[in-house]
Structures are given as structure tokens and as C-alpha cells.
Amino acid sequence: MKAGKNSKDLDELISRAISRERPKFDFNKWEQTHQEEIEIFNSQTTRGKAFRSAEPSNIWRIIMNSKIAKLAAAAVVILAVVVSVTLIDRSATPAYAIEQTIEAMRSVSSVRAYISDGEVLFKINPETGQEECYRVEEGNVLTVATPEKTYRYDKDKNVVRISDEYVIGVEVRFSRFIEDMADWVKEHNGKMDHQLEFDQELQKEVIKVYVHIPAQGNSGGQESTINVDPKTKLPISFGTIRLEYNVPIPPGSFDFEIPEGAEVVYE
Amino acid sequence: MDGDVDSFGKLCQRYYAAIVAIAYSVLGDHQLAEDAAQESFARALLKLRSLRNRAKFATWLAAICRNVAKDMVATKARQISSEDISKVAARSGSDDSVRAVLQAVEQLPAPAKELVILRYYDGLSYEEISCVLGISKATINGRLTRAKRKMAKYLKRNGFLENQL
Q1: Could you read off the pLDDT of A197-207 as tens digits, one per residue?
Q2: What is the greatest pairwise CA distance in chain B?
Q3: Percent of chain B beyond pLDDT 70?
Q4: Taking CB atoms and an 8 Å limit, are B16 and A9 in contact across chains?
Q5: What is the distance of C-alpha A53 from the center of its chain?
């Protein structure tokens, strides 16, 4: 029997086995049974518009509220510093221009951060420049955020906590980080200076950025040092956190299967 | 789509068959698949504001639906197992060839199984499948061909004679 006929016969068999009449969606009925969701959606829309007009750029507060605030805050400082360095003192390293960093950040498709007790992997949406998914492995806790859900698995307790939403890692867009953060830097009157130095640990020359954020109101000040790669113009480390960009994302990095026997808690 | 429930409803109507098919590929039960699709719409509506790229609404909705369906399996709400499609066939007295084909569908990897069901369950066009899976029609064709090849091998390996194909 010829392959073409075999294929056609198989098509018919599959159709016979699983086909059925197309289901029709009765939206009016659905509306009646999902009034609560519709009301929430309508209220979200109203709140969203109000928020945008009243608080256009309080990025820092949003980031600090996130569940991986430590890393996010680090990333914010790193990139805020790059902005400030280039905006405030271009003369110290004339080869380093803001446009280069902005351009470099445009092509970031993934970010991997090595933290003290694990690592974080962000996938960046190339169209929006925003994070799309992330995976954090820190000690015995695994966090996987997808557009639909965020899973936090405590391996010691064998408990999976599931949020029915994407818990944002960093509110600003990665590939537009520089532009998005510029306002924040100006608002906080941060001071910094930088110079090209040989880093003993990295064993190469880097742009060392020394940051001083003064205490404001109830928040204390911050002193930090960031290393920017003079070649790629991207921040490569911040304290003990090491950063890599455009790393290959292993298949299944953002898949999460509930381990057998794990307690599941919906949040 | 901003703030417009009616527009959202129109999109749901457009993708309903595909979303039900995706749920069916996980659940293997027609009624549960429709329940999962409708629950997916509810979840999608609540999170619509977080959708950053609205051109990808259909693929986003499909991903939500996969999660909803998997949750239904995971929480064992109705004690559904992954073998249900073939079990349903057995219970409903389907003939041997139908049962064999359903078993062949079951042994496919999840993405291939989903694709076969999208294509044959409601007879969706490549265009419609392309929208919900976010892949090109050429890719769909290639994957579908490979999936059917695997099914054919499985059927032959399990004594479903070539002259029956």
C-alpha cells in the first residue's frame, strides 16, 4: 500500500476516532455565571488607569514589593548606576557612552544571575523588552514564574505555593532599563563616580562604579560597587552577584511539575 | 480589548473550539474540556491587564488553558488519568480500529498529542492552529506529519495490520 493512501486512511481513522461537532461558546451564559470575574476586571481597569495617571514612575517601590526584591533591587542599582555614571560623569571614561549601554541592553534576550545560594534565569520578551518568565533556585527553594502562574516550591517542607498570576521580578523593561530608570536616578539624587580599574578577582579591567544613594525619609542610604564590562558595556557583577546575558535557556527551564506527594497551597 | 468585556467575549468565541481541544488533549473528557475552557476564560479575564503583548492573546489563552487542565488533573478533582481518552473509547464500545488509534494518540508526547487533537477533534484549520500555538503553518505541517508517522509505527508495532491503514 502506498504511503499517500496510508496517510489518507490514517487521517480518516483519526477523524473517526476523535472528531466531533465543534463546540459553540455561549458568551451570554458565561457572562451570567462569571459576574464576579467581570466585576473584578472592570474594577481593575478603572484602578489601573488611575494608578498610571497618579504614579507614573515610582519604579523602586514596585520593585521592592516584589518577591525577589533582593535580586531585583540589585539589578535596579546596577543599571541605575550605569545611567548615572554616563549622565553625570562622562569625562572619566570617555569611551563609555550611555548610548552604548542602551544599545547593548536592547539585545538582551536572557539574564542569568549567580547569587550567593543559587541562581536566577530571566527570559526576556524580545518585542516588549520585559521579563517573560524566570526561574530562581535559591537554597532549597525553587521559584518558577510563567505568564499564568508563579510556583514556589520549598523542597524541605515539600510544599508548593501557587499564585494564580505572574509575580513580577523587575517591573521595568530589561531592554529599556536605562531609559526606564533614568527618572528614578534623578529623583533620588544619587551620587557616584567611576573609573577604569583592574579587578583582582575578575582578573581584567572593568569600569568600577561606586554608588552612593543618600538616606531619604525613612529609608537608609546605600553604598555599592558595580563592575561594568568595558567591552560589552553591560554590568557583569554587583557585590557577590555575577551577571550573564543572552545565555541559552535550557528546554523546560520554566516548566514546573508538582512533585508527587507535595502539599499544594493556592495563594 | 481594553476594558471591553464584549470584545473579550468575541475573542473567546473565536478561540473556543481550539481552547476546548487543548483542554481535551489533557483531560480526555468532552464535558471537562469545556469546563476547563470556560474556567480559562475567567482566569484570562482577571489577568488581561497583565498581558503585555496582545497580539499573542490566543497563545497566552492556550497556555492558561493547559495550566487549568493540568490543575484539574493534579488536584484529582475527578480522578482523571492520562489514559482516559482510550478508556472512554473502550467504555463506549468503539470498534477496534478506533480504540487502537486512540491508544496511538495517547502514546504521543504531549505537544504532538495536542496538535493531533487540535487538528482532528474539531477539524481546526492550520490557520486556526497557528494562532493558538504561535507557530507557522509549515511547522504545523511538519510536526503533524511526524506525529502521524509515530502513530502509524505504533499501530503496526501493536498488530494493527498495514492493510487496515
Answers
A1: 888 777 888 88
A2: 57
A3: 82
A4: no
A5: 24
A192: cell is 557616584
CB A121 within 8 A of CB A247: yes
Question: Quick one: average pLDDT of B128-152?
Answer: 90
A35-51 confidence digits (pLDDT tens): 888 888 877 654 333 22
DSSP letters for B46-70: HHGGG-S-GGGHHHHHHHHHHHHHH
- With bands split at pLDDT 50, 70 and 90, how would you rate the model's confidence at B20? very high
Q: Give every CB contact of residue A182 below 8 A, 6+ residues apart in sequence.
A: A83, A87
The three three-digit cell numbers of residue A134, written as one number: 524566570
CB pair distance less than 8 Å for B122 and A258: no
Selected residues 39-98 of chain B with any CB under 8 Å from a CB in chain A: 41-43, 45-53, 60, 63-64, 67, 74-75, 85, 89, 94, 97-98
CA gap B45, B8 in Å, rounded: 8
For residue A20, give the C-alpha cell.
Answer: 466531533
How many angstroms separate the CA atoms of A81 and A209, rounded?
A: 7
| Interface probe, candidates B121, B154, B160, chain A, greatest A C-beta count within 10 A | B121
Beta-strand relationship, A263-266 and A159-163: parallel
DSSP state of A220: P
DSSP state of A16: H
Q: Which residue of B has its CA nearest to A132?
A: B52
| Residues in contact with B165: Cβ distance below 8 Å, sequence separation at least 6, in sequence order | A1, A6, A9, A10, A13, B152, B155, B156
| Interface contact flag, B53 A15, Cβ < 8 Å | no
Q: What ipTM score was computed for the predicted complex, to two decimals?
A: 0.78
| Dihedral sign from CA coordinates of A33, A34, A39, A45 | negative
Residue B97 has pLDDT above 50, yes or no: yes
